[in-house]
Amino acid sequence: MLRKPYEEKTKDISGLFFKKLVSKIPDLLFQLSLSPNGDLSSPFLNKAVIQYFELSRDELRNFDLSQRILENDFVDLLNSIKNIPNETTIWTHEFRAILPTKGLRWFKAVANVEIDSFQFVSLYGRLSDITEEKQREIELKISEERFQFAMEASSNGVWDIDMVTDKVFYSSQSMKMLELEEQDIISTHLKWDERIHPDDIEEYKSQFQLHLENKTPFYENAKRMLTKSGKYKWILSRGKIIKRDENGNPLRIIGTDIDITHQKEEEKKLLKSLEIIGEQNSRLLNFAHIVSHNLNSHTSNFKMLLDLVEDEEDECVLKEVFGYLRTSSNALSQTIEHLKELVDVNTNMVHKKENLNLDEYLNKVLDILSEDINKNKVKIFKKIPSECYISFNPSYLESILLNFTTNAIKYAHPDRIPEINYSHYNQNGSTILEIQDNGLGIDLNKYGEKLFGMYKTFHNNENARGIGLFITKNQIESMGGSVEVMSKANQGTTFKIYFNNEV
User: Which ranges carry the PAC domain (predicted)?
Assistant: First the structure.
Protein backbone atom coordinates (compact mmCIF):
# COMPACT_ATOMS: atom_id res chain seq x y z
CA MET A 1 0.00 0.00 0.00
CA LEU A 2 1.39 3.31 -1.05
CA ARG A 3 1.19 6.06 1.63
CA LYS A 4 1.48 9.77 0.93
CA PRO A 5 4.28 11.51 2.73
CA TYR A 6 3.18 13.37 5.93
CA GLU A 7 3.65 16.92 4.54
CA GLU A 8 1.68 16.09 1.40
CA LYS A 9 -1.10 14.55 3.50
CA THR A 10 -1.20 17.61 5.76
CA LYS A 11 -1.35 19.85 2.69
CA ASP A 12 -4.32 17.93 1.34
CA ILE A 13 -6.16 18.17 4.69
CA SER A 14 -5.46 21.92 4.94
CA GLY A 15 -6.69 22.54 1.36
CA LEU A 16 -9.85 20.58 2.02
CA PHE A 17 -10.45 22.56 5.23
CA PHE A 18 -10.15 25.95 3.55
CA LYS A 19 -12.26 24.73 0.63
CA LYS A 20 -15.05 23.73 3.04
CA LEU A 21 -14.61 26.92 5.04
CA VAL A 22 -14.93 29.10 1.94
CA SER A 23 -17.95 27.15 0.73
CA LYS A 24 -19.76 27.61 4.08
CA ILE A 25 -19.22 31.37 4.36
CA PRO A 26 -22.52 33.07 3.46
CA ASP A 27 -20.82 36.18 2.07
CA LEU A 28 -19.58 36.24 -1.49
CA LEU A 29 -15.77 35.90 -1.58
CA PHE A 30 -14.07 36.92 -4.69
CA GLN A 31 -10.87 37.55 -6.53
CA LEU A 32 -11.01 40.21 -9.23
CA SER A 33 -8.21 41.08 -11.62
CA LEU A 34 -7.89 44.11 -13.81
CA SER A 35 -5.32 44.11 -16.56
CA PRO A 36 -3.48 47.27 -17.60
CA ASN A 37 -5.62 47.41 -20.76
CA GLY A 38 -8.85 47.49 -18.66
CA ASP A 39 -10.02 43.86 -18.94
CA LEU A 40 -11.81 42.74 -15.75
CA SER A 41 -11.84 39.05 -14.83
CA SER A 42 -12.95 37.07 -11.78
CA PRO A 43 -10.50 34.15 -11.25
CA PHE A 44 -12.33 33.12 -8.09
CA LEU A 45 -15.93 33.38 -6.82
CA ASN A 46 -17.27 31.15 -4.07
CA LYS A 47 -20.63 29.40 -4.33
CA ALA A 48 -22.42 32.34 -2.72
CA VAL A 49 -22.29 34.04 -6.10
CA ILE A 50 -25.18 31.78 -7.23
CA GLN A 51 -27.48 33.07 -4.48
CA TYR A 52 -26.18 36.65 -4.58
CA PHE A 53 -26.78 37.15 -8.30
CA GLU A 54 -29.52 34.47 -8.77
CA LEU A 55 -27.49 32.56 -11.38
CA SER A 56 -28.57 29.44 -13.26
CA ARG A 57 -26.07 26.68 -14.08
CA ASP A 58 -25.70 27.99 -17.63
CA GLU A 59 -25.21 31.54 -16.43
CA LEU A 60 -22.67 30.38 -13.84
CA ARG A 61 -20.41 28.88 -16.49
CA ASN A 62 -19.99 32.12 -18.37
CA PHE A 63 -20.83 34.57 -15.61
CA ASP A 64 -19.72 38.12 -16.10
CA LEU A 65 -20.40 40.82 -13.47
CA SER A 66 -21.52 43.19 -16.22
CA GLN A 67 -24.52 40.90 -16.79
CA ARG A 68 -26.06 41.88 -13.45
CA ILE A 69 -24.54 45.23 -12.48
CA LEU A 70 -26.25 48.38 -13.79
CA GLU A 71 -24.39 49.77 -16.77
CA ASN A 72 -23.38 53.06 -15.18
CA ASP A 73 -22.48 51.37 -11.91
CA PHE A 74 -20.28 48.86 -13.78
CA VAL A 75 -18.42 51.73 -15.44
CA ASP A 76 -17.95 53.34 -12.03
CA LEU A 77 -16.71 49.98 -10.68
CA LEU A 78 -14.07 49.73 -13.40
CA ASN A 79 -12.98 53.33 -12.90
CA SER A 80 -12.80 52.79 -9.16
CA ILE A 81 -10.41 49.83 -9.63
CA LYS A 82 -8.37 51.61 -12.33
CA ASN A 83 -7.91 54.63 -10.08
CA ILE A 84 -6.70 52.72 -7.03
CA PRO A 85 -3.51 54.48 -5.94
CA ASN A 86 -0.41 52.29 -5.71
CA GLU A 87 -0.06 52.68 -1.98
CA THR A 88 -3.67 51.67 -1.26
CA THR A 89 -4.15 48.36 0.56
CA ILE A 90 -7.92 48.35 1.16
CA TRP A 91 -10.50 49.04 -1.52
CA THR A 92 -14.26 49.55 -0.98
CA HIS A 93 -16.97 50.23 -3.49
CA GLU A 94 -20.78 50.18 -3.61
CA PHE A 95 -22.84 49.36 -6.68
CA ARG A 96 -26.32 48.30 -7.76
CA ALA A 97 -27.38 45.18 -9.60
CA ILE A 98 -30.64 44.01 -11.17
CA LEU A 99 -31.58 40.46 -10.16
CA PRO A 100 -34.22 38.28 -11.89
CA THR A 101 -36.52 37.96 -8.85
CA LYS A 102 -35.23 40.35 -6.17
CA GLY A 103 -34.92 43.25 -8.58
CA LEU A 104 -32.67 46.15 -7.66
CA ARG A 105 -30.11 45.32 -4.95
CA TRP A 106 -27.25 47.23 -3.37
CA PHE A 107 -23.88 45.54 -2.82
CA LYS A 108 -20.72 46.62 -1.06
CA ALA A 109 -17.30 45.20 -1.94
CA VAL A 110 -14.36 45.30 0.49
CA ALA A 111 -11.03 43.86 -0.65
CA ASN A 112 -7.30 43.78 -0.10
CA VAL A 113 -5.35 45.27 -2.97
CA GLU A 114 -2.31 43.92 -4.73
CA ILE A 115 -0.71 45.72 -7.65
CA ASP A 116 2.21 44.02 -9.31
CA SER A 117 5.03 45.58 -11.24
CA PHE A 118 3.10 45.16 -14.52
CA GLN A 119 0.17 47.18 -13.10
CA PHE A 120 -2.08 44.14 -12.84
CA VAL A 121 -4.52 44.87 -10.05
CA SER A 122 -5.72 41.96 -7.95
CA LEU A 123 -8.50 42.30 -5.39
CA TYR A 124 -9.19 39.65 -2.71
CA GLY A 125 -12.30 40.39 -0.75
CA ARG A 126 -15.88 39.98 0.28
CA LEU A 127 -19.18 41.21 -1.18
CA SER A 128 -22.13 42.06 1.08
CA ASP A 129 -25.79 42.70 0.25
CA ILE A 130 -26.47 46.11 1.83
CA THR A 131 -29.87 46.66 0.21
CA GLU A 132 -31.79 46.92 3.51
CA GLU A 133 -29.18 49.23 5.01
CA LYS A 134 -29.35 51.41 1.89
CA GLN A 135 -33.14 51.51 2.01
CA ARG A 136 -33.06 52.62 5.62
CA GLU A 137 -30.45 55.23 4.71
CA ILE A 138 -32.55 56.48 1.80
CA GLU A 139 -35.72 56.52 3.90
CA LEU A 140 -33.90 58.42 6.63
CA LYS A 141 -32.59 60.92 4.11
CA ILE A 142 -36.07 61.39 2.63
CA SER A 143 -37.51 61.76 6.11
CA GLU A 144 -34.87 64.35 7.04
CA GLU A 145 -35.52 66.23 3.79
CA ARG A 146 -39.27 66.21 4.47
CA PHE A 147 -38.68 67.38 8.05
CA GLN A 148 -36.35 70.14 6.86
CA PHE A 149 -38.87 71.20 4.21
CA ALA A 150 -41.69 71.18 6.78
CA MET A 151 -39.65 73.34 9.13
CA GLU A 152 -38.78 75.84 6.38
CA ALA A 153 -42.31 75.93 4.95
CA SER A 154 -44.06 76.16 8.32
CA SER A 155 -44.42 79.36 10.27
CA ASN A 156 -44.00 77.30 13.45
CA GLY A 157 -40.66 77.01 15.18
CA VAL A 158 -39.10 73.77 16.42
CA TRP A 159 -36.93 73.21 19.49
CA ASP A 160 -35.00 70.23 20.83
CA ILE A 161 -33.55 70.13 24.36
CA ASP A 162 -30.94 67.71 25.68
CA MET A 163 -31.95 67.59 29.34
CA VAL A 164 -28.62 66.10 30.41
CA THR A 165 -26.35 68.78 28.93
CA ASP A 166 -29.02 71.55 28.71
CA LYS A 167 -27.92 72.05 25.12
CA VAL A 168 -30.74 73.19 22.92
CA PHE A 169 -31.56 73.61 19.25
CA TYR A 170 -33.98 76.28 18.02
CA SER A 171 -35.04 76.31 14.38
CA SER A 172 -34.67 79.43 12.28
CA GLN A 173 -38.42 80.07 12.60
CA SER A 174 -38.22 80.05 16.40
CA MET A 175 -35.31 82.48 16.21
CA LYS A 176 -37.18 84.75 13.77
CA MET A 177 -40.16 84.96 16.14
CA LEU A 178 -37.91 86.77 18.61
CA GLU A 179 -36.15 88.69 15.80
CA LEU A 180 -32.95 86.73 16.49
CA GLU A 181 -30.35 85.70 13.92
CA GLU A 182 -27.83 82.86 13.75
CA GLN A 183 -25.11 84.98 15.36
CA ASP A 184 -27.41 85.54 18.36
CA ILE A 185 -26.30 82.33 19.99
CA ILE A 186 -28.90 80.62 22.19
CA SER A 187 -26.91 77.61 23.35
CA THR A 188 -28.80 76.68 26.50
CA HIS A 189 -32.38 76.26 27.55
CA LEU A 190 -31.93 78.70 30.44
CA LYS A 191 -30.67 81.45 28.13
CA TRP A 192 -33.91 81.20 26.13
CA ASP A 193 -35.99 81.32 29.34
CA GLU A 194 -34.38 84.63 30.31
CA ARG A 195 -36.57 86.26 27.65
CA ILE A 196 -39.85 85.20 29.29
CA HIS A 197 -41.94 88.02 30.78
CA PRO A 198 -41.48 88.15 34.59
CA ASP A 199 -45.24 87.83 35.13
CA ASP A 200 -45.37 84.61 33.07
CA ILE A 201 -42.24 82.82 34.29
CA GLU A 202 -43.78 81.03 37.30
CA GLU A 203 -46.68 79.51 35.34
CA TYR A 204 -44.28 78.46 32.58
CA LYS A 205 -41.94 76.71 35.06
CA SER A 206 -44.87 75.02 36.77
CA GLN A 207 -46.30 73.56 33.55
CA PHE A 208 -42.87 72.51 32.30
CA GLN A 209 -42.08 70.78 35.61
CA LEU A 210 -45.41 68.91 35.59
CA HIS A 211 -44.49 67.31 32.28
CA LEU A 212 -40.94 66.54 33.42
CA GLU A 213 -42.46 64.70 36.39
CA ASN A 214 -44.70 62.78 33.96
CA LYS A 215 -47.84 64.25 35.51
CA THR A 216 -49.08 65.62 32.18
CA PRO A 217 -48.99 63.80 28.82
CA PHE A 218 -47.41 66.83 27.13
CA TYR A 219 -46.25 70.35 27.90
CA GLU A 220 -48.16 73.43 26.71
CA ASN A 221 -47.73 77.05 27.75
CA ALA A 222 -48.54 80.48 26.30
CA LYS A 223 -46.25 83.24 27.49
CA ARG A 224 -44.87 86.64 26.55
CA MET A 225 -41.28 86.65 25.30
CA LEU A 226 -38.92 89.57 24.77
CA THR A 227 -37.85 90.18 21.18
CA LYS A 228 -34.52 91.62 20.15
CA SER A 229 -36.15 95.02 19.52
CA GLY A 230 -37.46 95.12 23.09
CA LYS A 231 -41.10 94.29 22.39
CA TYR A 232 -42.98 91.33 23.82
CA LYS A 233 -44.65 88.66 21.68
CA TRP A 234 -47.05 85.94 22.77
CA ILE A 235 -45.51 82.53 22.05
CA LEU A 236 -47.42 79.26 22.42
CA SER A 237 -45.03 76.38 23.13
CA ARG A 238 -45.91 72.70 23.03
CA GLY A 239 -43.52 69.85 23.76
CA LYS A 240 -43.18 66.21 24.70
CA ILE A 241 -40.45 64.11 26.28
CA ILE A 242 -39.35 61.50 23.76
CA LYS A 243 -36.63 59.81 25.79
CA ARG A 244 -36.22 58.90 29.47
CA ASP A 245 -33.62 56.84 31.29
CA GLU A 246 -34.32 53.61 33.15
CA ASN A 247 -35.32 55.62 36.26
CA GLY A 248 -37.83 57.74 34.32
CA ASN A 249 -35.66 60.85 34.29
CA PRO A 250 -36.18 62.94 31.12
CA LEU A 251 -33.29 62.88 28.65
CA ARG A 252 -34.69 64.66 25.63
CA ILE A 253 -37.72 66.82 24.89
CA ILE A 254 -38.79 68.31 21.56
CA GLY A 255 -41.56 70.75 20.72
CA THR A 256 -42.88 73.65 18.68
CA ASP A 257 -43.29 77.41 19.03
CA ILE A 258 -46.18 79.38 17.53
CA ASP A 259 -46.45 83.18 17.45
CA ILE A 260 -49.98 83.86 18.77
CA THR A 261 -49.54 87.62 19.32
CA HIS A 262 -52.21 88.50 16.75
CA GLN A 263 -54.59 85.95 18.26
CA LYS A 264 -54.02 87.36 21.75
CA GLU A 265 -54.65 90.92 20.53
CA GLU A 266 -57.89 89.78 18.91
CA GLU A 267 -58.89 88.02 22.14
CA LYS A 268 -58.17 91.24 24.03
CA LYS A 269 -60.36 93.21 21.61
CA LEU A 270 -63.11 90.61 21.91
CA LEU A 271 -62.99 90.73 25.71
CA LYS A 272 -63.12 94.53 25.54
CA SER A 273 -66.12 94.32 23.23
CA LEU A 274 -67.84 91.86 25.55
CA GLU A 275 -67.08 94.16 28.46
CA ILE A 276 -68.57 97.12 26.60
CA ILE A 277 -71.61 95.08 25.61
CA GLY A 278 -72.02 93.98 29.22
CA GLU A 279 -71.76 97.58 30.41
CA GLN A 280 -74.24 98.72 27.77
CA ASN A 281 -76.68 96.01 28.80
CA SER A 282 -76.25 96.99 32.41
CA ARG A 283 -76.89 100.63 31.57
CA LEU A 284 -79.89 99.69 29.48
CA LEU A 285 -81.37 97.67 32.34
CA ASN A 286 -80.59 100.50 34.74
CA PHE A 287 -82.17 103.00 32.39
CA ALA A 288 -85.28 100.84 31.98
CA HIS A 289 -85.53 100.55 35.75
CA ILE A 290 -85.22 104.32 36.20
CA VAL A 291 -87.78 105.05 33.52
CA SER A 292 -90.19 102.50 34.91
CA HIS A 293 -89.78 103.58 38.53
CA ASN A 294 -89.62 107.35 38.15
CA LEU A 295 -92.21 107.86 35.44
CA ASN A 296 -94.58 105.49 37.20
CA SER A 297 -94.32 107.63 40.35
CA HIS A 298 -95.23 110.77 38.39
CA THR A 299 -98.11 109.17 36.50
CA SER A 300 -99.50 107.86 39.79
CA ASN A 301 -99.37 111.36 41.26
CA PHE A 302 -101.08 112.81 38.19
CA LYS A 303 -103.84 110.18 38.31
CA MET A 304 -104.46 110.78 42.00
CA LEU A 305 -104.57 114.59 41.59
CA LEU A 306 -106.82 114.42 38.51
CA ASP A 307 -109.20 112.10 40.39
CA LEU A 308 -109.38 114.76 43.10
CA VAL A 309 -110.12 117.44 40.49
CA GLU A 310 -113.00 115.39 39.12
CA ASP A 311 -114.54 114.78 42.54
CA GLU A 312 -113.86 118.11 44.22
CA GLU A 313 -116.04 121.24 43.82
CA ASP A 314 -114.46 123.42 46.48
CA GLU A 315 -112.50 126.18 44.70
CA CYS A 316 -109.91 126.47 47.46
CA VAL A 317 -109.22 122.75 47.41
CA LEU A 318 -109.08 122.76 43.62
CA LYS A 319 -106.60 125.63 43.70
CA GLU A 320 -104.46 123.69 46.13
CA VAL A 321 -104.68 120.56 43.94
CA PHE A 322 -103.65 122.54 40.87
CA GLY A 323 -100.64 123.73 42.82
CA TYR A 324 -99.72 120.12 43.44
CA LEU A 325 -100.23 119.40 39.74
CA ARG A 326 -97.79 122.17 38.89
CA THR A 327 -95.26 120.73 41.33
CA SER A 328 -95.68 117.25 39.86
CA SER A 329 -95.37 118.67 36.34
CA ASN A 330 -92.09 120.41 37.25
CA ALA A 331 -90.78 117.21 38.83
CA LEU A 332 -91.70 115.25 35.71
CA SER A 333 -89.94 117.80 33.51
CA GLN A 334 -86.82 117.53 35.68
CA THR A 335 -86.91 113.73 35.50
CA ILE A 336 -87.27 113.81 31.72
CA GLU A 337 -84.37 116.28 31.53
CA HIS A 338 -82.22 113.92 33.58
CA LEU A 339 -83.13 110.99 31.39
CA LYS A 340 -82.36 113.03 28.26
CA GLU A 341 -78.97 113.95 29.74
CA LEU A 342 -78.30 110.27 30.40
CA VAL A 343 -79.28 109.32 26.85
CA ASP A 344 -76.99 112.03 25.45
CA VAL A 345 -74.04 110.65 27.44
CA ASN A 346 -74.60 107.15 26.08
CA THR A 347 -74.98 108.06 22.42
CA ASN A 348 -72.26 108.65 19.86
CA MET A 349 -73.50 112.17 19.16
CA VAL A 350 -71.32 113.72 21.87
CA HIS A 351 -68.38 111.31 21.97
CA LYS A 352 -65.91 113.41 20.02
CA LYS A 353 -62.45 113.40 21.62
CA GLU A 354 -59.93 116.21 21.54
CA ASN A 355 -56.40 116.61 22.84
CA LEU A 356 -56.99 118.68 25.97
CA ASN A 357 -54.60 120.39 28.38
CA LEU A 358 -55.67 119.02 31.77
CA ASP A 359 -54.11 121.86 33.78
CA GLU A 360 -55.85 124.51 31.70
CA TYR A 361 -59.24 122.85 32.11
CA LEU A 362 -58.78 122.49 35.85
CA ASN A 363 -57.84 126.17 36.18
CA LYS A 364 -60.95 127.06 34.18
CA VAL A 365 -63.16 125.06 36.56
CA LEU A 366 -61.48 126.55 39.62
CA ASP A 367 -62.19 130.04 38.20
CA ILE A 368 -65.85 129.14 37.74
CA LEU A 369 -66.03 127.93 41.34
CA SER A 370 -63.83 130.69 42.75
CA GLU A 371 -66.68 132.29 44.68
CA ASP A 372 -67.54 129.01 46.45
CA ILE A 373 -63.86 128.26 47.01
CA ASN A 374 -63.24 131.66 48.63
CA LYS A 375 -66.47 131.60 50.57
CA ASN A 376 -65.63 128.22 52.11
CA LYS A 377 -61.89 129.02 52.45
CA VAL A 378 -60.99 125.90 50.47
CA LYS A 379 -57.27 125.14 50.08
CA ILE A 380 -56.38 123.93 46.61
CA PHE A 381 -53.23 121.87 45.92
CA LYS A 382 -52.22 120.91 42.39
CA LYS A 383 -49.54 118.56 41.08
CA ILE A 384 -50.40 118.63 37.40
CA PRO A 385 -47.73 119.42 34.79
CA SER A 386 -48.54 122.41 32.62
CA GLU A 387 -47.99 120.28 29.50
CA CYS A 388 -50.20 117.36 30.52
CA TYR A 389 -52.60 116.44 27.71
CA ILE A 390 -55.39 113.91 27.65
CA SER A 391 -57.71 112.69 24.89
CA PHE A 392 -61.22 113.50 26.09
CA ASN A 393 -64.44 115.30 25.26
CA PRO A 394 -64.16 119.00 26.33
CA SER A 395 -67.70 119.26 27.75
CA TYR A 396 -67.31 116.02 29.67
CA LEU A 397 -63.96 117.03 31.16
CA GLU A 398 -65.35 120.32 32.39
CA SER A 399 -68.44 118.58 33.76
CA ILE A 400 -66.38 115.92 35.56
CA LEU A 401 -64.00 118.43 37.17
CA LEU A 402 -66.93 120.63 38.19
CA ASN A 403 -68.81 117.72 39.73
CA PHE A 404 -65.93 116.31 41.77
CA THR A 405 -64.80 119.76 42.95
CA THR A 406 -68.34 120.87 43.82
CA ASN A 407 -68.91 117.67 45.79
CA ALA A 408 -65.65 118.18 47.69
CA ILE A 409 -66.85 121.66 48.72
CA LYS A 410 -70.48 120.64 49.31
CA TYR A 411 -69.52 117.74 51.57
CA ALA A 412 -66.67 119.44 53.45
CA HIS A 413 -66.17 118.42 57.07
CA PRO A 414 -67.54 121.15 59.39
CA ASP A 415 -64.64 120.84 61.86
CA ARG A 416 -61.74 121.50 59.48
CA ILE A 417 -60.73 123.72 56.61
CA PRO A 418 -61.54 122.04 53.30
CA GLU A 419 -58.59 120.85 51.26
CA ILE A 420 -58.64 119.49 47.72
CA ASN A 421 -55.55 117.87 46.17
CA TYR A 422 -55.30 117.32 42.41
CA SER A 423 -52.46 115.12 41.19
CA HIS A 424 -51.57 113.51 37.91
CA TYR A 425 -49.39 110.47 37.18
CA ASN A 426 -48.99 107.56 34.80
CA GLN A 427 -49.34 103.97 35.95
CA ASN A 428 -49.14 100.78 33.84
CA GLY A 429 -49.71 102.79 30.66
CA SER A 430 -52.73 104.70 32.03
CA THR A 431 -53.02 108.43 32.64
CA ILE A 432 -54.55 108.99 36.07
CA LEU A 433 -56.05 112.09 37.69
CA GLU A 434 -56.46 111.80 41.46
CA ILE A 435 -58.81 114.17 43.31
CA GLN A 436 -58.54 113.92 47.10
CA ASP A 437 -60.49 115.84 49.76
CA ASN A 438 -60.63 115.83 53.56
CA GLY A 439 -64.40 116.09 53.77
CA LEU A 440 -67.14 113.98 55.30
CA GLY A 441 -66.19 110.85 53.42
CA ILE A 442 -68.51 107.97 52.66
CA ASP A 443 -69.01 104.66 54.39
CA LEU A 444 -68.24 102.42 51.39
CA ASN A 445 -69.14 99.28 53.31
CA LYS A 446 -72.64 100.70 53.59
CA TYR A 447 -73.00 102.69 50.39
CA GLY A 448 -70.24 101.41 48.08
CA GLU A 449 -72.49 99.62 45.62
CA LYS A 450 -74.93 102.55 45.47
CA LEU A 451 -72.34 105.32 45.19
CA PHE A 452 -72.65 105.85 41.45
CA GLY A 453 -76.36 105.01 41.26
CA MET A 454 -78.97 107.47 40.04
CA TYR A 455 -80.79 109.52 42.67
CA LYS A 456 -78.52 108.18 45.43
CA THR A 457 -77.65 110.65 48.21
CA PHE A 458 -75.73 109.96 51.41
CA HIS A 459 -75.42 113.08 53.60
CA ASN A 460 -78.95 114.55 53.67
CA ASN A 461 -77.72 117.68 51.91
CA GLU A 462 -80.76 119.67 50.76
CA ASN A 463 -79.05 120.52 47.45
CA ALA A 464 -78.12 116.93 46.64
CA ARG A 465 -79.94 115.54 43.60
CA GLY A 466 -78.19 112.16 43.43
CA ILE A 467 -77.52 112.55 39.72
CA GLY A 468 -73.98 114.02 39.59
CA LEU A 469 -71.84 110.94 40.29
CA PHE A 470 -74.13 108.82 38.12
CA ILE A 471 -73.69 111.13 35.11
CA THR A 472 -69.96 111.59 35.81
CA LYS A 473 -69.29 107.85 35.83
CA ASN A 474 -71.21 107.43 32.56
CA GLN A 475 -69.25 110.29 30.96
CA ILE A 476 -65.89 108.75 31.95
CA GLU A 477 -66.84 105.26 30.76
CA SER A 478 -68.27 106.57 27.49
CA MET A 479 -64.74 107.93 26.80
CA GLY A 480 -63.23 104.49 27.44
CA GLY A 481 -62.00 105.37 30.94
CA SER A 482 -62.91 104.25 34.43
CA VAL A 483 -63.21 105.68 37.93
CA GLU A 484 -62.36 104.31 41.37
CA VAL A 485 -63.20 105.66 44.79
CA MET A 486 -61.51 105.28 48.18
CA SER A 487 -63.23 106.84 51.14
CA LYS A 488 -63.68 106.63 54.89
CA ALA A 489 -66.41 108.31 56.87
CA ASN A 490 -65.21 111.56 58.53
CA GLN A 491 -61.76 111.28 56.91
CA GLY A 492 -62.27 112.19 53.27
CA THR A 493 -62.60 110.79 49.77
CA THR A 494 -60.25 110.10 46.86
CA PHE A 495 -61.46 109.61 43.29
CA LYS A 496 -59.06 108.13 40.73
CA ILE A 497 -59.97 108.80 37.11
CA TYR A 498 -58.28 106.55 34.53
CA PHE A 499 -58.19 108.25 31.12
CA ASN A 500 -58.10 106.23 27.92
CA ASN A 501 -55.92 108.23 25.58
CA GLU A 502 -56.77 106.18 22.50
CA VAL A 503 -58.28 108.53 19.91
Answer: 219-272
What pLDDT tens digit does each residue of the chain (503 aa) get? 444 455 555 555 556 766 676 666 778 899 999 988 888 888 888 888 888 899 887 888 888 888 899 999 999 999 999 998 888 889 999 999 999 999 999 999 999 999 888 888 999 999 999 999 999 998 888 887 777 766 666 678 888 899 888 888 888 888 889 998 877 777 788 888 899 999 999 999 999 999 999 999 999 999 999 999 999 999 999 999 988 988 889 999 989 999 999 999 999 889 988 887 887 776 676 666 666 656 766 777 788 888 888 887 888 888 888 888 888 788 778 767 767 766 766 665 556 788 899 999 899 888 888 888 888 999 999 999 988 899 888 878 888 898 899 889 988 999 999 999 999 998 877 889 999 999 988 888 877 666 776 556 665 665 555 667 877 888 888 788 889 999 888 899 999 999 887 65
Global pTM reads 0.45
Question: What one-letter code names the amino acid at 35?
Answer: S
Three-class secondary structure assignment of 322-361: HHHHHHHHHHHHHHHHHHHHHHHHCCHHHCCCEEEEHHHH
